[in-house]
């Protein structure tokens, strides 16, 4: 009888779903599954586990182990869902990281499409983007920049550690059209910077 009890215990422990007596008998095999032996083993196991951290219970004709109800509060864990950014949010975050401080109009000009307010809200809720004052131009638009949390999350010591064109190419993250556009943009930024220095 001890062999039957051990076999039933192992079968139920390993099972991903509750099992009927017939299903357990099928697993135990003809040698051990003499008439009534599995039912007797289930009764003995239920008694053995009574009052312990896990219990053997029967629900709707099927048997399974479960956590003792009075201990369930110990097993609750807060799980942080991984953030999945939309393509628009990913592009917006990249633009802010490489061009900060940057206004909404500048982000839209670089992306070539308008961004919804929700896109910036998602990035701000994630604490990866913050407002960085207002631009001293007509309308005084808000500027956006990345946060320390952004650097921490992406394992960057500072914005200087952001990957450059060569790094992006090596990682296969830049197709030829993107590369050409990025190169033109960087050249344009350099031209504007040198013009500002001359003024």
UniProtKB/TrEMBL annotation:
The protein's name in its UniProt record: Segregation and condensation protein B
Record organism: Sphingomicrobium lutaoense
Domain of life (superkingdom): Bacteria
Keyword DNA repair: no
Gene Ontology BP, a term: cell division
UniProt keyword annotations, A-Z: Cell cycle, Cell division, Chromosome partition, Cytoplasm
SUPFAM superfamilies: Winged helix' DNA-binding domain
């Amino acid at each position: 009888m001890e062999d039957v009890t051990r076999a039933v215990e192992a079968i139920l422990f390993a099972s991903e779903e509750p099992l009927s007596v017939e299903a357990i008998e099928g697993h135990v095999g003809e040698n051990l599954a003499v008439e009534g032996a599995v039912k007797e083993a289930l009764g003995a196991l239920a008694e053995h586990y009574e009052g312990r951290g896990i219990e053997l219970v029967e629900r709707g004709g099927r048997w399974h182990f479960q956590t003792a109800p009075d201990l369930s509060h110990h097993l609750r864990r807060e799980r942080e869902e991984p953030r999945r950014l939309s393509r628009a949010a990913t592009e917006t975050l990249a633009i802010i990281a490489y061009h900060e401080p940057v206004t909404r109009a500048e982000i839209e000009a670089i992306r070539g499409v308008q961004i919804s307010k929700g896109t910036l809200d998602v990035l701000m809720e994630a604490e990866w983007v913050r407002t960085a004052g207002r631009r001293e131009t007509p309308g005084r638009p808000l500027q956006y920049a990345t946060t320390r949390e952004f650097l921490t999350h992406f394992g960057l010591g500072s914005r200087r550690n952001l990957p450059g064109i060569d790094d992006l190419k090596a990682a296969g993250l830049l197709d030829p059209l993107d590369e050409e556009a990025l190169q033109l943009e960087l050249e344009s930024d350099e031209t504007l910077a040198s013009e500002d220095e001359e003024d």
